[in-house]
Amino acid sequence: MPRAIELRSITKRFGSFVANEGVNLAVERGSIHAIIGENGAGKTTLMNVLFGLLQPDEGEILIDGQPVVLPNPAAAIASGIGMVHQHFKLVPSLTVADNVFLGMEILKGGLIDHAAQIERTAELSRQFGLKVDPTERVGLLSVGIEQRIEILKVLARGARTIILDEPTAVLTPQESRDLFETLRGFVAKGMTVLFISHHLEEVMEVSDTVTVLRHGKEVATRPTAELTKSDLVQMMVGRLVSFDRRPRAPVAGERVLAVEDLWARDDRGLHALRGVSFDVHAGEIVGIAGVAGNGQTELAEVLSGLRPATHGSVTLGDTSLTGLSARAIRGAGVAHVPGDRLVRGVDRNASVSLNLLMGRQDKAPWSRGGIIDRGYLAQQSKALIERFDIRTRSAAAPVKSLSGGNIQKVVLAREFSGDARFLLVDQPTRGVDIGATEAIHSEIMRQRDAGKAILLISVQLDELIALADRILVMFAGRIMGDLDGGAVSEERLGFLMAGVDEHGHHVEREMTS
Amino acid sequence: MNDRISALSGQALAIMIALALGAMVILAVSESPLKVFLTLMDGAFGNPERIAGTLLQTTPILICGVAACISLRGGLFNIGIEGQLFMGGFAATWVGFSFEMPPVLHVLAGLGFAAFAGLAWVAVPAFFRARYQTNEVVSTILANYVAVLITSYLTINIFKRAGGAPDTPPILESAYLPQLFSFSRANWGLVIGLLLAVGAHLFFTRTARGYAVTEMGANPKFAEYGGIDIKKQTFFLLLVSGAVGGLAGGIESLGVHHRFMEGFAPGFGFDGVIAALLANGNPLGTIITALFFGALRSGSLLLEVDTTASREIITVIQALIILAVSAQILVRRRAADSSAGERRWKF
Question: Coiled-coil ranges per the record (chain B) (predicted)?
């Protein structure tokens, strides 16, 4: 029997960046096939190629054994492929049935036949066990039900192979379980499911086969039953070869940051932090390792005042930061290099110098009596551009005209040039080229040697090993282990990241809120 | 810098296209577009009286435009300037006829109270926007109707002067805002408007608070991360915008009408919003666009005298300009990669 889908040596480049390099993927009919990898591993690019949203530079696509060219999503849909995107594309003011048939309305005498659409939606809903009320307005429904509607849309268009991009990212645990039940129902009917994830547990729970991508390449494709979570982590994060550990002298500093039994909820209202405690001392880099989505983002947001904690305390020196605003936390001496730098870290349309001003616009000598000292700003901008080696035409050039690495240097220049005692550095080199990465690492080391306390959150283990004095591993909102950065084994990290503690016990992800 | 040039040339192109479409409409009502254009120019700038007439129309549009710029800069859309203008106009008139004061003081008191009335009128929508993210477009536009009806009620049922027309009593002469020329009602309000435009520009580009609200409009997540209190700045900015809107009404009443009556200001608030949008939220640019709309209004008076075209043609041209400019802005935004750091309001 021909395979439902086969991708042969797909390569996709964006400029000089290779998102997919010679990726092979064979998906058997009637199976649930998971594609797993870190953020930026090329999962979504590959699926967009398969759905006709992107054209591969090299390689070929076979559907049911036949080579096809998919110039657009319409062609993919015609070939029986449907995609449920991470961000839903629904019209809140229309009913469920109207959304399902949007763009392919059932007509009667030139008008929309609402009754027929409702009936057909109800039929699909019964047939595939996706419970919805076809007459309900979408704006009133929960995210889990919206996802069912997206799946119904795909089914109504005759899909036999369904691609789901990070389907559980927005779901509650119960909704996730319902979704998995539905997916198993699909394959029982002979359909094929392809889903993208970076959650180990759900891949282990629901998939028949798993393909691991790393840095745009296919690392392995195996039957899920043959693998353990730790195997998956090892394959996702790979061998540690890229950076050498930076030499360092021990700095015995006082305790600067103390985090005590910290709890916080994520955007879904689930507890993303479950009793996190740790200290960071002056002159120390503490690394946070973990597969993305285990609470690192929420930890950074709580520490910087962008997300409230539900329990626990954060103390900087003798000052309690618990419950303070972002502004007050900055004022107390915390600098923050955010993980999503293009969203939070800069205003891309503003000049380099106005980006360097953020957070201190109402402090002397940057401004006096509410009036910005433009001379001082110009002089400081010039000095910072020079000191951090920011490659820009001028201080007046908009930040968006800079390369990714140089944009990050703008953020670093701003955050590291204040008088903060604690530096919260989140994914400092994500999407940054090698040269800029080296420079950024050197700068972080310089800050350490100057006695700053640094918390470095990174999904790149080699970065943590190169820089961190201690590495804390996060799993499911908890700290799994506290390792010496100089003597850490790759295997040990892999186990902890997969939720296996030092005694070999699996820590279960708690699915309650 | 390149961005600014391309934005300006795009804006200019859009206006040209709108004018060309307008010419076609004029042809369709069988009048010569050239004649209409020349008549408009003549009506707006033909002699000193007409220039003064244009400046008279420009003044409220400019001040309302500055009010709109203030909110737009922070990513907010105060479309209730018309209502704030009505409240301000009534408030200034009330001060003007109810109290006896020395001349300069009387004017200042009237204008101050007008600004306060505009501020108070936007305070409720501003509070709900800041505290609960209630859409300010809806709340301020609804407040417009209430403002028009309340001032109308007060005028007719409480303060109506003896005699026929539904007007309030005239304000005392001590509350008159002085005229600029002996032959026109154009008044010092124009100077106030120009000062406000320059002041708003300096505020946004030179002060710490102006920087904070500009970044709040450009990328609210960045502003939040940088420690800017979004709720506080949102509330503040809408209040200032409302105060300027109220001031526009005060200037109309103390400088032009010297009383308050129904239909006090025919759409100046909305024209101001459009002038501000056309200038991309830039207060200095709004001086030009407000002058343009003022000239259209003033020139249209002569249109019905000298040509067969009706002055409604001006409304058609304005609508075409709005369409062309919005289309142009949309095209430019599509072209620029706007995936990250979304603005709160696309204008």
Answer: none
The complex's ipTM works out to 0.85
Domains parsed from chain A with CATH numbers: 5-237 (3.40.50.300), 243-333+420-513 (3.40.50.300), 350-418 (no CATH)
Question: What is the percent of chain A with per-residue pLDDT over 90, rounded to a whole number?
Answer: 65
Q: What is the pLDDT of residues A296-318, one digit of tens each?
A: 999 999 999 999 999 999 999 99
Name chain A contacts of B225, Cβ cutoff 8 Å. 304, 306, 326, 336, 338, 344-345
Is the Cβ of A447 closer than 8 Å to some Cβ of chain B? no
Domain with residue B95: its CATH number is: 1.10.3470
Contacts of B6 in chain A (CB under 8 A): none
Q: Which residues 406-445 on chain A approach chain B with CB closer than 8 angstroms?
A: none
- Band of pLDDT at residue B337, cut at 50, 70 and 90: very low
| Number of folded domains that form chain B | 1
**CA atoms of B159 and B151, how far apart (whole Å):** 10
Closest CA of chain A from B4, distance in Å = 11
Query: Is the residue at B122 inside a domain?
Result: yes
Please name the residues between 329 and 368 in chain A that touch chain B, using a CB distance below 8 Å.
Answer: 329-331, 336, 338, 342-350, 354, 357-359, 361-362, 366-367
Q: What is the 3-state secondary structure (H, E, C) of B195-254?
A: HHHHHHHHHHHHEHHHHHHHHHHHCHHHHHHCCCCHHHHHHHHHHHHHHHHHHHHHHHHH
How close A400 gets to chain B, by Cα (Å)?
10
- Name the minimum distance, in Å, from the CA of A378 to any CA of chain B: 13
Query: Per-residue DSSP letters for A149-209?
Result: HHHHHHHHTT-SEEEEESTTTT--HHHHHHHHHHHHHHHHTT-EEEEEE--HHHHHHH-SE
Q: What are phi and psi of A371, to 5 degrees?
A: -100, 125
CB < 8 Å to B226, chain A: 326, 330, 358-359
- Structural domain range at position B91: 35-335
Q: Do the domain assignments include residue B66?
A: yes
d(CA A465, CA A487): 9
Does residue B6 lie within any of the structural domains? Answer: no
| Contact across the interface for A362 and B206, Cβ inside 8 Å | no
Interface test with A, best of B225, B338, B339 (most A CBs within 10 A): B225
Q: Is B68 inside any structural domain?
A: yes
The per-residue pLDDT for range B4-57, each reduced to its tens digit, is 676 677 778 888 888 889 889 888 887 888 888 899 899 999 999 999 999 999
Lowest-pLDDT range of A171-185, A411-425, A438-452:
A171-185
Residue B340 has pLDDT above 80, yes or no: no
Determine the angle formed by the axes of helices B230-252 and B48-73, rounding to 10 degrees. 160
- CB-based contact, A173 to chain B, within 8 Å: no
Gap from B217 CA to chain A (nearest CA, Å)? 10
CB A51 within 8 A of CB A81: yes
For the record, the structure tokens of B70 come out as: 């203030």
Chain B residue closest in CA terms to A330: B227
Lowest mean pLDDT among A11-20, A22-31, A214-223: A11-20
Interior CA angle at A264 toward A261 and A269, to 5°? 150
Q: At B333, is the pLDDT very low, low, confident or very high (cuts 50, 70, 90)?
A: low
On the CB side of A449, CA atoms within 13 Å amount to 11
Let me know: does A121 contact A152? Beta carbons within 8 Å. yes
Q: Do B211 and A372 touch (CB under 8 A)?
A: yes
Say which of A327, A350, A362 has its CB closest to residue B218. Answer: A350
